[in-house]
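Encode chain A's predicted structure.
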Amino acid sequence: MKRTLAFLMILLISGVAFVQGADFSGNWKLNATKSKLNDQFSMAPKEVILGQQDNELNVEKHASFQDQEITIKDKFTLDGKECINQGWQDSKKKSTAVWAGDKSALTITSKLAIGSGGDEMTIVEVYKLDGENLVIETKASSSYGEVAETQVFDKQ
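Encoded structure for chain A:
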C-alpha cells in the first residue's frame, strides 16, 4: 500500500511539472554563428528577456533597425487564449500561445495590420530549448511574401 501511494505521489508530482511545460525564463543573447538568419533582412533581436510564471510569458526583445534601438514588449497567456499587444505604430497585434503536445515547445501565432491598405502579416514563432540554447524558429508571411529563419540564443 505504501509503495502504491508513493508511486502515485511521484506520478502526480511529475505530471504537474510536465503540464507546465518548458521554462524559457532568462536573459538570452543572439548567437549569430549558430543561427540561420536571412542575408538581407533579419528579424532576429540581439537580446531576448523572458519571464515565465504560471500561465504567463513576458517577452522583451531588443533589436536595432536602421541604426535605431528598438524594444518590443509582449505579454502572452499560455492557455491558447487570444492576447492583444502593441503592434507597429498604432496597430494591435493579436496572438495566441499554444504548447506542443509534449510541452517541449511553445508556438506563438500573431497577426497584425501592415500598411494602410488593410494588409495583414502573420508571424509564427516556435520557442524551444536545445541543450543550453533557446531556439526561436520564426516565419512571417504577408502579401509581400514569406521569410523564415532560425534564431539561436545563449543564456546569460
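Strands lie at 26-30, 47-53, 56-65, 68-77, 83-86, 92-99, 105-114, 119-130, 133-142, 145-155.
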